[in-house]
Amino acid sequence: MQALASWPLQTRRNIVGVFTDIDDTLTTEGAITPDALQALADLKAAGLFVIPITGRPIGWCEPFMAGTNPAPWPVHAMVAENGGVAIVPQQADNLSQIGLQPSQGMREQLSKPYQKIYQLSETERAHNSARMAQVAAEVLAEVPGVELTRDGGGRETDLAFDYAEHAQLPPATVQQVLDVLQRAGMHTTVSSIHIHGCFGDFNKWMGACWIAQALLGRDLPLELDRWVFVGDSGNDQAMFRALHAQRGGGQYRALCGPAHPPAHLCHRGRARRGLCPSGPGYFASARMSHAPQAEGQRPAAQTANHPQARRGLFSVFASTLFQLSGIFMLSPMLLILLKGANVSTTVAGLFAATTWLGIFIMTPFASALTQRIGRRQAMWLASIVPLLSALGYMLTDTLWLWFVLQLLAGIAGGMRWVLAEAFIAEFAPPQQLGRYVGSYATMVGATFVIGPSLLAWVGAESSVAPWLVVGLLTLGLLWTAFIPALPPDHDSHSAEVGLAGLWLALKAHPVIMLAGFMGGFFELGLASTLPLYGMAIGLGASAAALLVSVSGAGGTMVALPAGIVADWFASPARGRRWLMLACMDLMVLASLALFGVGALPWLVWPVVAVWGAAGAALYTLSMVDIGTRDKGIALVNSTAVLVLTYTLGGLVASGLSGWLMDQSLRLGFPLVLVAVATGGLLALLRTRDTDKL
Prior knowledge:
693 residues
């Protein structure tokens, strides 16, 4: 954090709007002061958009817009209940163009200068209201001394309990309330005075993006260097966390923040004076000291940094495309060579499992290592090692050395896996994270097709094959050099790393991590042994290798659509959960169909396609869920745990499958797969009444 005085004048001149918290930011001891009102007026007079965003209920905010308490606040809108509802001017023209949900009693509101708009439909709000009443009763019954907030009469989209406004509750009691709310599947936040819970993914950052588009037609994530946020509360952390995730000069300016530190800090004690006294002068005077920009013009800082983000995304995508294509060409080639050398199926399966063992060993320490040597340097190292391993296979036929090389390549692969997905989250626009994660997963799925297809084309025993692998891995390494440098993570000095960080991430996303395990088991783990299965049921070497391509094709076709479809749900978390259940259903059915492969050999092709598709969709949905909830080192830790569970699934599947094929190809192998898929389905069904994953 830097002092407010260090904020450059030229940067301030690009500002077009201000979001602000209300309690203890605009108010002093619960009331707004004349100087704070004047500061808002100065901002608006300077041509800035001014939008308070609060956890307070919409009914509490209405008098401030109506001018009954004591005069209308000089603001363009107010967002209440942590983004679930807003008050906007009655004459706002942009609203009719984007399908917003108006309030009930619109005819009554036509005589008012403002209207209420919602993110959810009236039907959804009515359903949630009934559920919230039940949850409120549970909290009051289970946690002694807790009361609903006194302003709750005007609250429409969330629950709020008082812990520091009129009551003084200890942290242990606050945590008890949070536990009950989260158990019910509610998204929770804690402000400076209240505990909040809602059904949905509402928070201040999402509310800010929503109102900027709804009221102004502006895409907030694309112009972060043109907005300011002022806050001091725990429920402001979504704003600070999202803002620190931006790149280069496009960083959002934040003042007076909590655990996720803002870019600038004004040194003023709590509840002493409304707003940061020097802040309005900084914003307004800087704004009035230059001619305003055209409304659609992109500021110079953003234009300069936009190519960097796009270059970063393209470099990560290209590097991954070439690297994984080489790896997935190399892996089946090595298995076929081992079988040609009369190595048992069990040993060959263990060799395939060594890759996942290396990933599993490395992943818990990925965040600590990259924190020590830097992200780009760690990415380079992770790209060099597989290339050296590929060259090593060409120089020796000694089996134990192959195991060592496979283990080293797996260790590097684990580091690269976490880093690549963290880079995607860093460079992707926040509002398009799902699209980019889905696109990335689709491209990864394509490498499952490209690698084995290239192997089938040149032949597994061709002298050209290993050199083609080396060429692909070299191109992957070269592309990592074009990944631009990133600023340090905002929580690099406060977040837990290593095993402690992984444990926190696992507790935060247990069901998501289960989905990751199932995805790894059926997509990567089984795919690594499909050539062995294909040859065991009588397919030739080339056809057996193509089973991996079919599995990869299934994943390639569904990853991006799965991410897009999940965004269509009013509650994205609930939508992701239902899509995960559908994937698990498909895994159970496909595994049952494996019993019929002996009589109908053609069944193996749709079965492996479904395994790949369902596994890829599970992983994509899990990564999107994590990306919407975590940023910085917390995101790296959560990604690492997802990779660990995914890898564990792959390790179990590849290690177990070879042995099962040797022992009971027609009965034991499909029976175990059915049992695993059914267990995952039952675990997900336990969460059928919640939005929490």
